[in-house]
Design a protein that fits this description.
The structure holds 2 protein chains of 2 kinds. By secondary structure, chain A is an alpha+beta fold. Chain A has helices at residues 14-20, 30-55, 65-121, 144-156, 201-209, 214-220; strands spanning 126-136, 161-164, 167-168, 175-176, 183-184, 187-188, 193-198, 224-235. Classes of the chains: A alpha+beta, B mainly alpha.
């Protein structure tokens, strides 16, 4: 590279160089100035073009193969990372969506269970097809055992809930007392005893009529029994819900 | 400076005209030339700084400037081309840029000493 000077020489070398090349310091010929101007024009042009090239996003076109390979590898690993992130997020989205659905389904299920339990426990009124049974006892010979039989038979025949003489029958209902002084859950009841039961009325009425069953016993006791089936009977007597004092829900072994 | 009639007008004018042309025309650099253009620009800048220094030293020679300008550009491009052929283009262009950068710094230091005596 022939330059005007050898690179970083200190100005000490100046006199010597001046001596060597003293004659070019004379006025330059016109053509030399022109050439210098052309070269400077070229430099400016190349400079501007290069700046433009770097500036506009075409920096990759001038890149070398190994650089391009490295850039490509970078981009690919970045793409992989982003892809896995996308699939993670999609999984999460699906989970959240289905979680919402299953939460709603669980709430619905819980509500239905609560209703079923409330009907069984007698804390809410219930209606449906069933029987209205009226037991008359003119001789005061129908005792609690006969009513208990009636309740057992109705339960056995699939009655879902019932009330006897205005008292709702629950799991802990007690029928006590002799003829004429029957108490159901401590409430004194008097004849005629009206039993309202919800269930399949056909099955229930058959259960009342079995030989040696409720109907026979009532007649033996000198009473009479009317069984009326209907598409719609209402059991509207309520039982207070007894809060368990000692028992607590045990943790679900499945959890 | 002594005895130079034309002064720095022509080079500066040329530079301005070239930059303006480059900005206005905005040509796309051919793909095969793209690795060499930045190297060529830096080599030419080195020659220009050398020329400025020589001028301040009073030993400017138009012929030397022209020859150094062209040979700088050509040799720099050749080195990079050779590097590309050998598979070390990136490293060799870095080397060329470093060398030319050192020279530009040296010339710039000399110019600075001339202009502000420090």
């Amino acid at each position: 590279m022939a330059t005007d000077k050898e690179p970083t020489a200190e100005p000490i070398a100046e006199p010597e160089l001046e001596q060597v090349r003293s004659e070019p310091a004379r006025p330059r010929p016109w053509s030399a100035s022109l050439l210098i101007g052309v070269l400077c024009t070229l430099l400016g042009f190349a400079l501007a073009v290069q700046l433009r090239t770097v500036d506009s996003d075409q920096g990759l076109t001038g890149a070398r193969q190994e650089d391009l390979v490295r850039i490509l590898a970078d981009l690919q690993s970045r793409q992989d990372r982003l892809r896995s992130e996308i699939s993670e997020q999609q999984d999460l989205l699906e989970q959240l969506g289905s979680g919402e659905d299953s939460a709603a389904a669980a709430v619905e299920e819980a509500r239905r269970q609560a209703e079923a339990l409330a009907i069984l426990n007698g804390t809410i009124a219930a209606e449906g097809p069933g029987l209205t049974i009226t037991i008359r006892d003119p001789d005061s010979d129908v005792d609690s055992a006969i009513l208990l039989d009636a309740v057992q038979e109705l339960r056995g025949a699939g009655a879902e809930t019932m009330q006897v003489a205005g008292v709702r029958i629950g799991v802990s209902t007690a029928l006590v007392g002799g003829a004429g002084e029957i108490r159901i859950d401590g409430v004194a009841v008097e004849a005629p005893y009206v039993i309202i039961a919800i269930g399949d009325s056909q099955t229930l009425s058959v259960a009342m009529q079995i030989p040696g069953g409720v109907e026979d016993k009532v007649i033996q006791a000198g009473g009479s029994i009317d069984v009326v089936s209907a598409d719609q009977v209402v059991v509207d007597a309520l039982r207070p819900l007894e809060e368990p004092e000692y028992a607590e829900p045990a943790p679900d072994p499945d959890d | 400076m002594k005895g130079i009639r034309t002064g720095p007008v022509i080079p500066i004018l040329g530079l301005a005209v070239g930059i303006a042309a480059g900005v206005l025309v905005d040509p796309s650099v051919p793909l095969s030339l793209q690795p060499y253009l930045p190297i060529a620009v830096v080599a030419a800048l080195d020659a220009v700084f050398g020329g400025i220094r020589a001028r301040l030293d009073g030993i400017f020679d138009a012929k030397v400037f022209v020859v150094s300008f062209i040979s700088n550009v050509v040799i720099a491009a050749l080195i990079v081309f050779l590097g590309d052929q050998l598979g070390v283009g990136a490293q060799l262009s870095t080397a060329v840029i470093v060398v030319l950068g050192i020279r530009i710094f040296g010339n710039a230091a000399a110019i600075r000493r001339h202009l502000i005596r420090a």
